[in-house]
Amino acid sequence: MALIINHLSPSAPFPPLNFSSVCSRHNGLIRICSHNSERAKRVISLSPLHKNRSSTRPLKPISSGLRYPIISQEDHWGTCTALFAIGAFGLWSEKTKIGSMVSAALVSTLVGLAASNLGIIPHEAPVYSIVFEFMLPLIVPLLLFRADLRRVIRSTGTMLLAFLLGSVATVVGTIVAFLVMPMRSLGQDNWKIAAALMGSYIGGSVNYIAISEALGVTPSVLAAGVAVDNVICAFYFMFLFALASKLPPETSTMANGVALDMESNSEDNFAVLQPATAIAISFLICKSSTYLTSVCGIQGCNLPVITATVVIVATVFPSQFGYLAPAGKNLLLFTFPMMFVAVLGCVYLHVQNKSKTIDFKSVVGSNNLAFWKRPLFVMAPLGIVSSVELAFAAMFVVLLIWSLSNYLFVSFGHLHMHKEGETVWQAKFRSVSLRLGYVGNICWAFLFFPVTRGSSILPLVRLTSESSIKYHIWLGHLSMVLFSAHTIGFIIYWAMTHQMAQRQGYEHAYPGFAGIEFLTGVLAIMQMLQWSDDWVPNVAGEIAIVFALAMWVTSFPRMRRKMFEVFFYTHHLYALYIFFYVLHVGVAYFCMILPGIFLFLVDRFLRFLQSRQRARLVSARLLPCDTVELNFSKSQGLNYCPTSMLFINVPSLSKLQWHPFTVTSNSNMEPDKLSIVIKREGSWSQKLFQQLSFPVDHLKVSVEGPYGPNSSHFLRHESLVMVSGGSGITPFVSIIREIICRSQNGNVHVPRVLLICAFRNSTDLTLLDLLLPISGTTAEISKMQLQIEAYITREIGQPSTDSQKLIRTICFKSDPSDSNISPVIGPNNWLWLAAIISSSFVMFLIFLGLVTRYYIYPIEQETMQTYNFSLTSLWYMFSIISCIFLASSAIFLWCKKQYSLQGKQIQNLEVPTPTISPGSWFCVADGELESLPQQSLVQATKVHFGARPDLKKILSERKGSDVGVLVCGPRELRHDVAKICSSGLAENLHFESMSFNW
Predict the structure, then answer these.
(1) What structural domains and CATH numbers belong to the chain?
(2) Cα(988)–Cα(719) distance, rounded to whole angstroms?
(3) What is the mean pLDDT of residues 824-834?
């Protein structure tokens, strides 16, 4: 992080080196001349001025070959990834010969400059301001809690005098340089930029930023100064570091004298009271310092005042703030980053929802990344994998390999013999088995993010919980392989060491005794059943792996699809799995995976609270194609995007089973109703149809959701090709309804739509009737460019109209205990979710800190022993659950009260009941179309009997530079479309898959 901040500026992190072309700025950011101007532009002159030479001259236009950087300035996560990757590369470069000579900071600077000038990262981006406005001021106190001036003066001695002399020399040198080169072309900024550069040479880039902000340096001059300073200092520091590399390293008497005991010291207490206090004091210092500067009218001095404040208090109270210093590092390392991202993501998504518009001009920039999003290969175990997914998967595998290698390198250098008579290879075998568990813990750190339905992190990277389920599957399989190897390795180790260590003793004590093998085997089993009070309990890990194996075996595709109920019920063992896993690994390693589990528990409890309410089911339409449409009453404040999912539970069928279904209604067209479609396929849906086949006036249903994408991103395409098979048409129903709604506004861009749907029988054509809402009119669909190609694969001719079945509509009576489906905390209330996450996390830190300070520490001081290992883990889990319960319940009940006051009871909708199936409308003669109310939809539809769509031909013939290809249906269909889009036959196709079975 320090490498990134050290070379960023508020305007541009790595400004381009074409200084003579800097001619204008927009919002304080550098621009390059690429167009003809009507008047001469003034430029920044960075060379010595002559008295008889004008400092201004007209510029010639400079055209750039890159109109857009590879990473768009609106791609916040891409920009952050690139910046942190540059910093990581700089750290890695120190392991090379050249990198060790020039240092990581210098390598990061040079790579950043090159990336900016080559058009890889943007010169300007909104995300840069977040670093300097929030993260940098907050990090300054956390890093300076040990800045006790008295201790600094005592410990540095003559080094402090050398620093003061160097500072005075820098000031004098700056004054002399300014007199020689006054830089009059910069106007009033000439002495300001000189002062800023002087500060950077004394205290680094943070001083440069603080002085520039205080003096009000023009952003363009500020950015140019960063660029010039980085280039000149690059060569200067290369020379200094090259000289330093020739000096012999300092000898250390501790390198060989102290053995590194990772296993015994890895469980250091994570003092939670320290992080809670540290972060609170950091916020307090930042708030008080900014308030002080505003009251005193001192502009741009936030950073100097923050620095001065923390140094003063650290000097006055050295022991108290020295106690907080390690807490800042632990908090920044383990949990704070992801919690900060989750809360900040909620704020960002809230602002985005308030201005819910689609920037179609960004399509050009997004096309630069089209290659990375294109399917790269289709493989049965992994499914459809894009280039960006493969890249991130490769980086994750490299992370695991590097972690394992690093663990083993350190461990093999400091081997510990845990058993009498243990050999070196046995110790190494134990170390490998242990480190495999460490690496599996890294997988667990990411395991729960994809299954957090109301996540504020997934929408930031344009993912939904449904689309990221496959990442959860990949991580689950990988972690189970590592944990299984970890378990088997220790079982083998225990068997080997006990048999070798105890066998000789028994043979010596009982010569000729035949039960020696049995006794040594019993001892190995006793080792497996050990539950230690002050160390890792083996039994907890063995119980956890048993639950994990049960979930793993039932999650394989063949078993999951054939016995879904077994998979569903078995997967709920995750609660016991987490419980015993935390007891086994302890709090130190639990903190590494805490963010994912914490956010998942918040989401899970909010879903539980929502599911306790019964949803008001208004009506049900039974279509002839063994499909039922359920219509719920909802609050008008509930908004959702197309392709959203609703999870429902029918207690009369099963009190435990929850099933997801696609929402087909549109929140703008139908503000009081929410509809889902259920196909009669599995055992659960069979029971639902049987129950609806008998007269029923009320049906109890609980719901969770809806959950889905945060924006209608598919509308950015020029045209859409939607390919469906069977019930896979349901997500496209919501998309078409959204386009119909937007087409009513003539100023809004809507794409052309080609719907290719394949059905087995002609009765399935009734699914096309769902494209229009019950209250739909012909005028609504006539304003959009829609073409439907329907293929009936198992019939070769049109069915007779006499064979058409009737639609049956069931209207349910309202029940006082039922309520409208209200907005979900998260997708519709991001600020409330941010409040829950932040408040529950702070409560967790404070609560556990109090328990540690006033309960655990006194026991340890009284007994002179470490507090019980397992009880410490129980305190952590109890604190997390309690704080999430209190914060989530309070905010949920408050929101529920507000919705009940604002909402109105909606009576049963008057639903017209057709006399014949709308599916028959697609099979009648042309002369009868004019008398049908859905004639616009029928005219846009062409039915092909006894044929299958030639997808390769259809997709290759699509014209236009930006064609979105959406596919939903059986696996074979999705894989076929993915192969066509990845073949390179049509570069204008942008693929996206929607799946019901993973």
Answers:
(1) 2-145+182-246 (no CATH), 265-333 (no CATH), 342-356+382-608+828-897 (no CATH), 612-820+915-994 (3.40.50.80)
(2) 11
(3) 84
